[in-house]
């Protein structure tokens, strides 16, 4: 009689005999070691790139690799080196200390795309504080980087039941461009935002699904979602 196949459900392997199973395990160990080497290589690259400091706040203690979502972090270009404080506040919005993130006033000018993307996300999360909006107005991301940055916000909001929709019921997202569907008198600014005006790079008011923020004629204003239409 032939030998029974050797099975290992944890590795989802089916081998014809024990020798084959040993060979597969050896290859698995090689792959695992290669994965560890890749991770160490990424961390070493980030240490050299950052000068062994947090790429967001410049702290020097408790540093580790953070893969900027939604990318898998399989290269240094998709990762940043962060301290434990930054990591905790990135991953848990309830623990965010707005004053800590004033560090972005400096780090947002990094030439590293992953750092710029993370700075944009945190400033967008904190924009209701006021001062982050001024920094966002100065921070330029090209189309690809903005798409990367916005995809992370979409992931963060997946579990959030609050949805901002325009006058046609289309879902609005941070960074969208909308068009005004009627003339709007802007209180305190002494001008009228005309129907058809395009408002680019909108911000969502986190606790009010009926409001967005955007810049019209150089003024940052709050606009009701029922008065806008999402641009294609």
TrEMBL record:
Query: Would you indicate the residue range of the signal peptide?
Result: none
The residue ranges of the PhnA protein N-terminal proteobacterial domain are 45-91
Q: Matching Gene3D superfamilies, A to Z?
A: SH3 Domains (2.30.30.40)
Q: Record's InterPro entries?
A: PhnaA_N_proteobac, YjdM_C
Protein name (database record): Protein PhnA
Protein source organism: Thiogranum longum
């Amino acid at each position: 009689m032939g030998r029974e196949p050797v099975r290992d459900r944890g590795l989802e392997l089916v081998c014809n005999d024990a020798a084959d199973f040993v060979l597969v395990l050896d290859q698995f160990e090689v792959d695992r070691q290669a994965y560890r080497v890749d991770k160490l290589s990424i961390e070493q690259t980030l240490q050299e790139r950052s000068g062994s400091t947090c790429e967001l706040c410049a702290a020097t203690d408790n540093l580790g690799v953070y893969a900027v979502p939604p990318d898998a972090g399989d290269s240094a270009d998709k990762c940043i080196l962060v301290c434990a404080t930054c990591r905790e506040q990135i991953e848990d919005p309830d623990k965010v200390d707005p004053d800590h993130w004033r560090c972005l006033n400096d780090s947002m000018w990094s030439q590293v795309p992953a750092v710029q993307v993370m700075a944009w996300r945190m400033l967008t999360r904190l924009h209701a504080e006021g001062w982050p909006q001024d920094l966002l107005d100065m921070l330029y991301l090209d189309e690809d980087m903005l798409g990367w940055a916005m995809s992370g916000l979409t992931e963060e909001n997946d579990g959030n039941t609050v949805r901002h929709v325009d006058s046609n019921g289309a879902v609005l997202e941070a960074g969208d461009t909308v068009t005004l569907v009627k003339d709007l008198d802007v209180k305190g600014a002494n001008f009228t935002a005309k129907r058809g005006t395009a408002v680019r790079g909108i911000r969502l008011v986190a606790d009010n699904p009926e409001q967005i923020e955007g810049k019209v004629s150089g003024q940052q204003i709050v606009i009701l979602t029922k008065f806008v239409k999402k641009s294609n």
